[in-house]
Design a protein that fits this description.
Length: about 700
């Protein structure tokens, strides 16, 4: 049954150091009930993108098969509901007799035994009373002991969960937030044990109790997570921006921003075990999360009952029924194919429209219609159906719209009425034509996301967008071209709330008008605007900076006097010269990523006190040959990741002496000498009794 721990067990095996070291490639793909062959192949290819060398005319099937051929791989296919899902990709996995493995998790016995009826299955069982109590204690008290006066009540609550791990951790999450006194616990125990029904019904009661006991300010945050598709990896950055735009997070204090309050709300939901963390950032903050299927079902039901939102993503309904369904709804989550239906709806009270993704393998344009083609394992077209470009004509009838999240949709045109939506706070679309100056009419817009459009020729990238100064509420702007700001006049207002800009062309005058920027991506392709890097010192609150040098590397730092702001915590340099003298002295830098960078003379030599608080160092596809350093130069480094560093001769032996170091990871194509240096560090640290450091090598 759901919640019994299938995925948890698989993830523990998948991430175990012995597993990581044994397999050259590991891939995780979630199948779900509503699967498609292309979505599975796309997920596989996305996980293998660092190995993908392309190939003209090759299908995704051929690319995946080519990558896996000759390598020992582990593929986990999680949450499979039909044997057909296995059939559509079975030939993508080469059998080279080298110990590669494919792991399936499923609720269905027939599906589990289908690939090989002679194979012994691992059937999950419910927890016994002792196991339930041990799990309960661990989740409530962590490493501390349970007070004796709570033990009897706690065991009673754990038994009431009927051995289902999900129920145990959810109710434990609830109890971890209440005071440790018998009266408070007894009230929870009475509610948990009150339903003397079948196991499935009682589990529903326990999960519902976790919702009922939520503080009022957390309920809409929890319900909103179910507006995403099933098994969807929710990017926290997007979730938080939507929460803020929807107005469902409490007002911040003087020292906090709305985003910081929203992040605290998410952490609270995680603490209660209602939301699962799937990935964390290097600084420990949550990067992505998801909902367990049973909790998502609870969310959708509660959201429908309270008229919070209507989720139609998982359903295929006729146009007439769709129109009838949304008549009294304020928020709807739909597939992008239903957007065009809205134009015939008429006046609406809808405040929020969220769209799910659709899968495209090959796109042809025929009189405004896109043909979506699904391929079988032998690269033959087995299904072809039209997919219309999305029109936004319906915006004339949704005057109260706050959120239009149509990010997966390729938009045909931008009607004038779109820029008359005075209440619009969040706009996300795919569009590659000119953005009109009447964008400034959207006075309440907080988040603007315009992604690259897809066509039969691939990706169409727009050139630039002009952002006016008279949009005082702007907080986040993402554009897959170059963002330009109007030349600031003396009396023009400052964009004081603006926190994120990607990618931008800027000057000192402009930077002074966006003083509170926290995250910035700068495009210096072909040397363009590289001089503006010296003006970044004006961004005193900047924490996250990414510099893209384009196909040609940036001119050497000495020509531009590059100076980074002292508050910088994360720096990513792509396709650029590595300015050693400018990066080393940064006092707050915690994460440094060097991707396809060059280094003067091919040698990186660090100095004492250069990286005082650096915790994560990622070097990928660089031309670095030699690295000279000492352990004292990286005093608190925790993670060192070397990806496809084919020119690097070795890791300095002193790196192993860093007392805080937890991980050295070497992947991709590297020299044998680099692999040997990593192994030498591992052996020396093991001989010294260092059990903390993990050295993971899955290089080619």
């Amino acid at each position: 049954m759901g919640g019994i721990g299938k995925t948890t067990l698989a993830r523990n095996v998948y991430g175990d150091p012995l597993t990581v070291g044994h397999f050259a490639i590991r891939v995780w793909v979630t199948i779900s009930q509503d699967y498609s062959a292309q979505r599975i192949l796309s997920s596989l290819l996305e996980s293998l993108k660092e190995y993908n060398t392309g190939g003209l005319g090759q299908s995704d099937y051929q690319k995946v098969h080519k990558i896996l051929m000759g390598r020992r791989y582990l593929v986990v296919m999680d949450d499979m509901w039909s044997s057909e899902a296995r059939d559509v990709v079975r030939w993508v996995f080469p059998d080279d007799g080298n110990g590669s493995r494919v792991v399936l998790t499923t609720r269905l016995y027939d599906v589990a035994s289908y690939p090989d009826p002679s194979n012994r299955l691992h059937e999950m069982s419910l927890l016994n009373a002792e196991q339930s109590w041990n799990l309960f204690k661990h989740k409530v008290f962590a490493d501390e002991e349970c007070p004796s006066y709570l033990e009897t009540i706690g065991k009673e609550i754990a038994r009431s969960c009927k051995g289902l791990p999900l129920a145990v951790v959810v109710i434990a999450g609830l109890l971890s937030t209440v005071s440790e006194d018998p009266n408070s616990w007894q009230k929870i125990a009475e509610k948990v044990t009150s339903a003397q029904t079948a196991v499935h019904d009682q589990i529903e009661e326990i999960l519902s109790l976790s919702y009922v006991e939520l503080p009022q300010y957390l309920r809409p945050c929890f319900l909103y997570t179910a507006s995403f598709p099933e098994d969807y990896q929710i990017h926290v950055v997007k979730l938080i921006r939507l929460w803020v735009a929807e107005g469902i997070v409490k007002y911040p204090s003087d020292s906090d921003s709305f985003e910081e309050v929203a992040e605290e709300c998410l952490e609270e939901l995680v603490k209660r075990n209602l939301v699962l963390v799937t990935k964390r950032k290097s600084d420990g903050r949550i990067k992505s999360c998801c909902l367990h299927d049973l909790l998502r079902e609870l969310c959708i039901r509660k959201a429908r009952e309270s008229k919070f939102f209507l989720n139609l993503m998982d359903r295929h309904i006729e146009k007439e029924h769709f129109i009838e369904s949304i008549k009294e709804e304020r928020r709807v989550s739909v597939d992008t194919s239903y957007l065009n239906y809205l134009s015939s709806y008429g006046a609406s009270i809808i405040r929020s429209i969220k769209c799910s993704k659709y899968d495209i393998v090959k796109v042809d344009s025929v009189e405004g219609v896109r043909w979506v083609r699904v391929w079988d394992a032998e690269s033959a077209v087995v299904e072809s159906f039209p997919y219309h470009l999305v029109k936004l004509d319906f915006v004339e009838d949704v005057r109260l719209l706050k959120v239009l999240d149509a990010e997966p949709a390729d938009v045909k045109s931008l009607p004038t009425q779109l820029f008359q939506l005075f209440h619009l706070r969040y706009l996300a679309i795919r569009y590659s034509q000119h953005i009109p100056r009447i964008l400034s009419n959207l006075q309440n817009l907080q988040t603007l996301i315009i992604r690259e459009e897809r066509s039969k020729f691939g990706v169409v990238v727009a050139c630039e967008i002009l952002v006016p100064w008279c949009m005082p509420q702007l907080r986040h702007v993402y554009f897959h071209g170059v963002i330009c700001f109007e030349d600031p006049k003396e009396r023009s207002c400052a964009l004081e709330y603006l926190q994120t800009v990607s990618y931008v062309a800027c000057s000192e005058r402009i930077l002074k008008k966006i003083p509170n920027l926290k995250k910035l991506k700068v495009d210096c392709s072909g040397g363009r605007d590289a001089a503006c890097l010296r003006d970044l010192v004006h961004l005193r609150r900047l924490e996250n900076l990414e510099v893209y040098g384009g196909r040609r590397v940036l001119s050497r730092p000495k020509y531009y006097n590059i100076t980074f702001p002292d508050n910088l915590k994360k720096l990513t340099l792509r396709n650029s010269e590595f300015p050693q003298s400018a990066v080393g002295p940064l006092p707050n830098l915690q994460v440094l990523k060097l991707k396809r960078c060059s280094c003067d003379g091919g040698t990186w030599e660090t100095t004492e006190g250069a990286f005082p608080v650096l915790e994560v160092l990622v070097i990928e596809d660089t031309r670095l040959q030699n690295w000279i350093t000492e352990s004292s130069h990286f005093p608190i480094l925790k993670r060192l990741m070397l990806h496809s560093c084919w020119d690097l001769n070795g890791i300095p032996n002193d790196i192993g002496e860093i007392p805080t170091l937890e991980l050295i990871e070497v992947t991709g194509k590297v020299k044998r000498s680099l692999m040997e240096s990593a192994e030498l560090i591992r052996e020396e640290q093991e001989d010294m009794g260092n059990t903390t450091l993990q050295v993971l090598c899955s290089a080619k």
